[in-house]
Amino acid sequence: MTDIERYVRAATRDNTRRSYQAAVEHFEVHWGGFLPATADSIARYLADHANVHAVSTLRQRLAALSQWHVSQGFPDPTKAPLVRQVLRGIRTLHPAPPRQAAPLLLQHLSSAVACFEREAAQAQAEHDLPSLLRARRDSALLLLGFWRGFRGDELARLQVEHIQAQAGVGISLYLPRSKGDREAQGVQHRTPALKALCPVTAYLQWIEVAGLARGPVFRKLDRWGNLSDAPLNSNSLIGLLRRMLERAEVPAALYTGHSLRRGFATWATANGWELKSLMSYVGWKDAKSALRYIDAAQRFGELAVGTPAVLLEAKD
């Protein structure tokens, strides 16, 4: 890989690159389309999948095909009036509400963390290091993901050397790249220590038992408790999250990797956070992005009960 190719690759988020590659493969291999494509073939592709995929998915497929044509030096057929008209017609004839991840309820977060604490205590008593590693990792993953409102790919990209944590005080986490950081300047996140469900304590316990001094914070553990050097794959977080919650007998089927982020947003709203403060804390640049994560149809009364009040004042 040349330096130019390396820098071009770095300009696109890994998740975006993978999703674009999958979309182009779907058009070319699964549907049988030819590249470079014509506006007519892309319009037929959209029509053939109008009853199968949501409009948001079709838009993502168009973005991938657009990027492929531009990067290869071909005219972009996705901008043709025919393609736009077909997409507009699909949206009219197949209206559907946007699908959103269910917010992780605080009571379910608390139940899961309590379960992991019981597992850790038992593992320590039995000198069972693999079980102790799993319990400490899962607790830190849930609590950091929830209280920081992190996306799955952000959790996967956390590095020990970019984190400073002090027990009873707080934690500072630096991400060199994130979705909202359009200029790739890096973002510093801070979260205070809490009296209950504390992400700082959970993080310190995890890196201590795992013996981590640098590299990825969250890593794969195999069935024998062997800790990988590689980070968790962000695409595997949905399955991992559900398995974690199932261990705690929490209804897990509703939750996805975005449930942590949406759970924090709805908790913060229920506890009186102003939209501007929430946007600053989580890293949203516009109110529309923030409102997509907040379920205005519910009061989330259960989220406002027994929560760590100190976090109400937390800001970046």
How does the major sheet shape up? 3 strands, antiparallel
Please give the domain count: 2
The CATH homologous superfamily of the largest domain is named Intergrase catalytic core
Question: How large is the count of helical segments?
Answer: 13
Could you characterize what this model shows?
This protein is mainly alpha-helical. It has two domains: 3-93, DNA polymerase, domain 1 (Orthogonal Bundle), CATH 1.10.150.130; 106-313, Intergrase catalytic core (hpI Integrase, Chain A, Orthogonal Bundle). The chain has 13 helices and five strands. The strands form two sheets. The protein has a three-stranded antiparallel β-sheet with strand order 1-2-3, covered by helices on one side. It has a two-stranded antiparallel sheet with strand order 4-5. Strand 1 and strand 2 form a beta hairpin. The longest helix is centred in the middle third of the chain and has 20 residues, at 106-125. It is elongated, with a radius of gyration of 22 Å.
In short, what is this structure?
This protein is mainly α and 316 residues long.
Topology:
Layout: H1 3-10, H2 14-30, H3 39-48, H4 55-71, H5 81-93, H6 106-125, H7 129-148, H8 152-157, E1 163-166, E2 170-175, E3 187-192, H9 199-210, E4 219-221, E5 227-231, H10 237-247, H11 259-270, H12 275-282, H13 287-291
Antiparallel strand pairs: 1-2, 2-3, 4-5
